[in-house]
Input
Amino acid sequence: MQEPATVTKFVTKSPSTPRTDRSRGALSNEQSRFITARSEFVDDGWETPNLKLGEQGSPDAGAAGLLSDEFSVRRVPTEFFPDKTRNLITRNSSPDIPFDRSINPYKGCEHGCIYCFARPTHAYLDLSPGLDFERKIFYKTKVTEHLANAFAKPSYQVRPIAIGTNTDPYQPGEKQHQVMRELLTRLLAHRHPVTIVTKGQLLTRDLDLLEQLAEFNLVKVMISVTTLSIALKTKLEPRTASPGVRLKMMRQLADAGVPVGAMIAPVIPYINDAELQDIVGACVEHGAKELNYILLRLPLEVAPLFEQWLVEHYPLRAEKVMNVIRDTRGGKAYDSQWGQRMRGRGPFAELLAQRFALALKQQLKQHQVAPGGIAALNCADFNPDPNRSQLTLF
Output
């Protein structure tokens, strides 16, 4: 049983609305649910000027270090930390997802998508699923060594490794740390199949490796598309590539012979669900041969963060949106039950599934794309030791 939180109060003037970095997705930075000592801010009755922390006249240094981002207007840079990886490949036995192993090159994501279901994982690092998730990023280390050790085990059985299932492997920090490029280089050397989900433009940097993987039928790329509206994209996913750029990425991959599909996720009632048919059409037109969608998921801390975002950006729609979400989740903000967590249930969810199926059928026929999606990847050419061209007898 968790002990009650210890609350420390700091006196300050609380603004009526948060003053945060608008290039970030979250509007607050509530600390980890595993930390029992909490700080609260109370109004002392005096007006507090809108100053940056550390400026003359701002709160003193002791209190400044404890003030939340709701009381600061400064832009805080993204920080990167090496993640002392033990097991690079994560296993799962979930019956409602098409892979049993995955690699996430980064913990946290600078893209800042407000709806990201991976946000709660930052609480395990004693960090906030809010702003900390977007600006305190951990990158995997010793990738080549970990892959070699995993593949060398006699018990290892080859199946596609999914990358980008939790956080985006092509977020901005990849330009500096190049974890994803190292992964693809090693997977190509081992002839190991891989699937990728991303909305990051940096993917095109690795087109040379993707083309080589495609030659051996070792790769499938799914581009995440949430909206065709730049205005909505900027609110939902502030540091991601524009919708036009993502469609262009699809066309580049398709023209290069790299199997490409689209992941329409998440679909949010009364926010982007009206675009569903248009998104399907645009993606198929730009070369997507496999499409799927996911209904909005709001586990743990994601629910209050998303509700805060709704009130800020769509105050007149907020209650209506949440009512429909709860209707698709059995009366709750989220239901983690296998088989329903991706699609939901109820009238709205059923209608959404019908709309998607009809739009996909029509667009595939219109663009003369064979139904059935992308062919299964090649698992037969796996080489556990790419440094040896053949085995020796002695």
User: Anything to note?
Assistant: The longest strand covers residues 260-267.
